[in-house]
Design a protein that fits this description.
globular; 14 helices; mainly alpha; 306 residues
């Protein structure tokens, strides 16, 4: 079967070949999810990916191998269940790579595979982990919406940090297969001290939060520079990467999920924090007044050694 140079199938085959060249290690077998694509490779490649898995398992998290499409997963209200479902498609993917030329419609088969393997376990784990980091949530709808967007911005920040740790060569094909959700660039870590990279991730978090809260895209660079005035060069790159969040996710997926599920989310968060003595975490209505909010972000970055 002749493939167009730029076809989705051709790109997919090249991506899988590159990802499959990544090293694995038997010492992470106890952490590896059976039949989850490229899990063993990522556990070996990234300390951040490993820590997320270890943290999730330590809090009692479980996994269930069960066929689940991307639309069904995105529409689920249960970001709070400590059982994460994933599609066990690794063997199917490996078979397809070897036999795609004998498949009647290989392009369609490729699309079908990706429609069942497009949820990042790493991203889902981090949601569950971060609920435990955050203080108790407010119950009023608008205040809770800010809280949920705050949590989402933290997860976005960790998605980008994972891509930075893996590097551009591998993060791009992993992003295209949706094993991870973001890619990196040459400027992300180059020449940065640990403190500078920490501030860079803070800027990514802040820009992502503003975007999720509905700020105008053209206003976000000035807001980030106001908060981090000594880092304007790296702020520019941080904002650019944050603005890659799709408008469809912000305006449809995220907004509709909150509209449908905010009451269930509130009930779940009450259960998470029913023995937490901290006061309710009311996020400032004006992000330019963030203080305690940034302390929480700092604690998360420190926890993950970023």
């Amino acid at each position: 079967m002749a493939l167009k140079q730029d076809s989705a199938l051709s790109e997919f085959l090249k991506d899988i070949k590159l990802i499959s060249s990544m090293k694995k290690s038997k010492k992470y077998d106890d952490l590896t999810l059976p039949e989850y694509p490229f899990d063993a490779e990522l556990l070996n490649a990234s300390p951040l990916y490993r820590q997320s898995r270890e943290d999730y398992l330590e809090l009692g998290g479980q996994f269930r191998a069960r066929m689940i499409s991307v639309p069904r997963s995105l529409s689920s209200h249960d970001l709070f269940s400590d059982v994460i479902e994933y599609s066990p498609v690794l063997s199917e993917m490996e078979w397809f790579i070897k036999n795609h030329e004998e498949t009647a419609d290989a392009e369609f088969a490729c699309e079908s595979l990706l429609s069942y393997s497009g949820i990042s376990i790493y991203h889902e784990q981090n949601h569950r982990i971060l609920w435990r980091f955050l203080p108790p949530a407010p119950t009023e709808q608008r205040a809770l919406s800010r809280y949920l967007n705050f949590a989402e911005a933290l997860v976005v920040m960790l998605d980008l940090a994972l891509a930075d740790q893996i590097g551009k060569k591998l993060s791009l094909p992993l992003e295209r297969t949706k094993t991870i959700y973001r890619t990196t660039n040459a400027a992300a870590r180059t020449g940065k001290t640990t403190k500078q990279y920490h501030q860079y991730l803070m800027a990514i978090f802040f820009a992502s939060y503003l975007l999720l809260e509905g700020a105008y895209r053209e206003d976000i660079p000035n807001a980030v520079d106001y908060i981090f005035p000594k880092n304007k060069t790296q702020n520019k790159d941080a904002v650019k990467r944050s603005l890659d969040i799709s408008e469809l996710f912000i305006n449809v997926t995220n907004a509709e999920w909150q509209s449908r599920n905010w009451k269930k989310a509130s009930e779940a968060l009450i259960q998470f924090h029913n023995q937490n003595p901290e006061p309710t975490f009311y996020i400032s209505e004006d992000p330019l007044d963030f203080e305690n909010e940034f302390q929480i972000v700092h604690s998360i970055l420190n926890h993950f050694a970023l």
